[in-house]
Fold this sequence. Notes:
- The complex is a heterodimer.
- Chain A has helices at residues 35-49, 63-74, 85-102, 104-107, 112-131, 142-168, 175-205, 211-238, 240-250; strands spanning 5-12, 26-30.
- By secondary structure, chain A is mostly helical.
- The termini of chain A are far apart.
- Chain B has three domains: 1-20 and 248-387, no CATH class; 21-35 and 160-246, no CATH class; 41-155.
- Chain B has one helix and 32 strands.
- Chain B starts with a helix and ends with a strand.
- The chains are: A mainly alpha, B mainly beta.
Amino acid sequence: MTAAGDLSIVASADLGSLGAPAGAPVAYHWDLPNLAPQIFPWLVILGLLALKPNRNGSAWLIWLPVICALVLTWLPLGLPSAEGFLLDAAVALAFGLAAVWLLATYLRRGYRLLTALGVLLVLGGAGSLELLPKQSQGLFSGEWVVQIFILGFGALASSVALLLAGWFCRRRFSPSKLYIFVLVSLPAVWLALTAPFFLAALSSSGAPIAWGEFLLPVVAVTGANFALLLPFLILSSANSLFRERLKLILHVQPPAPPALAPVARTMPEAVLKT
Amino acid sequence: MVFLVFGRFACLAADSAALPSPPPSGSIVDLTYTETPYSVNNLAITLTEQATPFKHEPLPGGKTIRGALNFGAATNSIAFFWQRDAGKLFLDLNQNPDLTNDPAGVFPNSGARSYNYQTFTNIPLALRTPAGAIRVVADLAFFNYGPRPTCSAALHSFWQGRVTLGGQDWQVGLVPDFTQTNFCAGGGLLLRPWARRDEPFSAGGNTYDALPFSPKVFVAGRAYQVRCLPAVRGAEFSPSLQWTERTVPLGDLKVTGRFIRRLVLTGGDSLVICERPAEMVKVPTGAYSSPRVLLEQNGAQAFCTAAQSVASKSILVTGQGPAVLAVGGPLTNSVSTMRRGEDLVLSYQLLGAGGGYQMVNVDRSKPPAFAVYQGQKQIAAGSFEFG
């Protein structure tokens, strides 16, 4: 709500003959929320843009996929308003992905698994930085735990999906191939992550497997996760700077060009004519 | 002022009616067995699961659960065999430890096809009580969530009769609860004007027509001793209720709200039922807590959610001065506010005298709405979500 000051709120409902439809106005003084928690994650991204590898005009394009994620959360998704806090976790994951792309040159390690671990840590860490300042009910509140849980699972699924996609594309990289492998890897990872919980619930109830109850939520979260990743992948396809960053994360090219073999300088033979 | 005078007149009338010494033996109302299309009571049934097959049982079709349903006393155990995957329930209704020779004891799942929750309807149960064999009709619901299956029964039968109390005809009834040791008096007591006898009711429902059985009842401005007299006529269990008027000290209770159809007071000497109470009523002296209030006006009904109500405080009725009970209408739509970060969380409240209320029949397609104003300008509006 952008308005501030003294507000009055009126509830109304049909009470038949038991009362008037419109209730008495309830006064409430609304102060605009503190902007610091809102702009903190943006400042983090600005800080990352100040790093030496990102001192490039193209690096500022990282705002585009972040804004895409924000717009996605504004769409009418049919979530009850009380569940709206779940979308904060999605935005946090988008900020985490932006941080990964901006820190890619530091994340690249000699081993694919180590790079993936770095991606996971940055995703989770930067995402948490987006969530932490917004906590109005204190740490370890129910909402915060759920948000962190979703962010953690999203970070794990995204990093493992990128790891697998990078492995599949290690010999020959192309954006379309990458999209397909990410699209295949993500549901596989989400299935693997959620199956233990589902199986535990099944074993306790003894009920036969209701695939619909299991697969539909997995399809939904996979779709949401892919929708968050896709703008970053598209940016990486369209922009050479971020394409190189993506390749660093995916391990589809060596960190540095191979050292050139010393070129034998063949001096033209001098013909000494005497 | 007019109401005050009328209320005082009603008090005096009630007072003088309660003072004469009661007759030594009260009126006895024979109750007749009645089946209803709606559930009159919901009971949790103890389910004992057993792994070893019965000596005679149907062939297992997929996942099966077997054991005994314990309807109160140990003598009321009925063996069951639930073919969960097939959606079929076998009951040993003839009590001959053979689940294959009882065609009347086979019931198909009548609910939605679900492995975790199945319902079996119109099950006639013959139960043994210290007073004799009784029959009830119930829907049984089996739940298979968690490590152990559970069962509940929705009763569709009770015993009812007609009695004149305080010059008015009342429908009285016994709603069985076979989880109680005293089957006759352990259940619910239905007590409402005879004119409303065809309306659905439920023990534990929010219209308070059926309440936990009490041997002392104050209704229609008079106090009664109520005895349940179990009897068997022919092969039929047929209980009776004996109503013996008694004298109790009375005090004034002033009810501040309007539209009250039923006011129930518990915690004192008697179960106090006031139907359409006047502003001032006479009730037995004593301390009462958590009054139950049903409002009704032109078909609209609401009940007081006493747990969140200031009316849940104790009410002391003495012979000296009137006690004041702030309950009733008119009702007002309201909203409670809570800031959560950058969000303002609005919660709908229905308020009346004494605290919160809830409409009995809620049309979920028309949720309560809200509008936010800054000065005269509306800056936001929407509907509340149920949940």
